[in-house]
Amino acid sequence: MKSPHASIYQISPYVAGNVVPADFVFRHNLASNENPFGASPAVHNAITAYVKSSTHTYPDGNAIKLRHKISETFNVPFQNIVCGCGSEELLHLLARTYLSPADEVLIPRYGFSVYNIAVLSVSAVPVFIEREGEHKTLSVSSILSAVTPKTRMIYLDHPGNPIGNFLDYEALTTLIQTLPSSIMIVLDAAYAEYMNVSESYTAGHEFIEIHPNVVVARSFSKAYGLAGIRLGWMHAADTVIDAVNRIRAPFNTSTLAQHAGISALNDLEFVDKTVAHTHEWRQKLNMVLHTSNISFIPCCTNFTLVCFPDRATEFYHSLGRNGIIVRPMTMYKLTDYLRISVGTEEAMTALFEQIHVFKK
Ligand SMILES: Cc1ncc(COP(=O)(O)O)c(C=O)c1O
């Protein structure tokens, strides 16, 4: 049998947040940036009604009703939307559609690990952009200095995961106006719903009409609580949508996912409550860290990246044995850091107690 192409073996298999040592107690999962409240009750009703009726028929391959709902909610043209099995699928589809072997793709250092996997899976070459300073910020100049004649694409986690910072409106505008239009700019806005507290943030939809090389990917996994349903969407120029639609699986979003997505968008009050809770408890976490002299990377998302020099592994195990699962950052080679998602009040209170014990 022929071997897989060589770049496949440069990929380290993705390690999910719920893969933990046997002695861990699964009480509070703060490892996967999920919505601690689940999804809106409207979603559960829609799913139950669907399961009772038509599981035997194929989905609408064009997700027409869902795309209309997304269009109306986000003020994005219906024909410029494609839905996917999580935004992750869309990130992969862009790589498969646009990249050839040896093309270079810019990825911010510590960027979401799926970018590297998508790039290597088509034998293209990831080129990492270094971040600077204590908060590991990304600058337009460092991005531009990494561009070569072989650069075809940039994946920008916007805001980042696990580094929660982002290019503000001014910097993003400069980047989009300066990069050659032959380079596709993929703005991965999986956490955009949490960015309402930042005036200088834009997910970037407004750039697409004038700059058809810009694509914005969005997720239903975070603020909408649909991570298990697998649903994301992408806004892009006509030509990009047309190309991606040619290669995506015809039924890449299930009927269940489409119903769930519409119902989630029918209950934006649930999203608002989730986001408000997240900001409140992330700030409380930051305060506990600050008063305990523990440094962290400030952000607006539903997680915080926290630095425990030389003691991250010890604290990870200690938390795990006490019922709190957080995410080690070894796959990003950030061995001094743990990424902690914002959970329920109960989970956060338990976490604060453990931080106090750890600091004693
Ligand atoms: C930055 C970023 N982009 C994309 C995704 C993928 O989201 P989805 O569940 O929609 O595939 C994640 C998930 O953790 C993420 O952190």
CATH superfamily of the largest domain: Type I PLP-dependent aspartate aminotransferase-like (Major domain)
Q: Tell me the helix content.
A: 25-40%
How much is the average pLDDT?
A: 95
CATH hierarchy, class of the largest domain: Alpha Beta
In the sheet with the most strands, the strands line up as 2-8-7-6-5-3-4
Bound molecules: pyridoxal-5'-phosphate
Q: Roughly what fraction of the amino acids lie in strands?
A: 15-25%
Query: How is the CATH topology of the largest domain named?
Result: Aspartate Aminotransferase, domain 2
- Rounded to the nearest angstrom, the radius of gyration is 20 Å
Distance between the termini: 58 Å
**What is the tally of beta strands?**
13
Could you characterize what this model shows?
- The chain has 360 residues and is of the alpha/beta class.
- The chain has 2 domains: 6-39 and 269-359, Aspartate Aminotransferase, domain 1; 41-267, Aspartate Aminotransferase, domain 2.
- It contains 11 helices and 13 strands.
- It has helices at residues 41-53, 64-74, 86-98, 113-121, 140-145, 169-178, 238-247, 255-266, 268-291, 312-321, 345-359; strands spanning 28-29, 81-84, 104-108, 125-129, 151-157, 184-188, 214-219, 232-235, 296-297, 303-307, 324-325, 327-328, 337-341.
- It has a 7-stranded mixed β-sheet with strand order 2-8-7-6-5-3-4, sandwiched between helices.
- The mean pLDDT is 95.
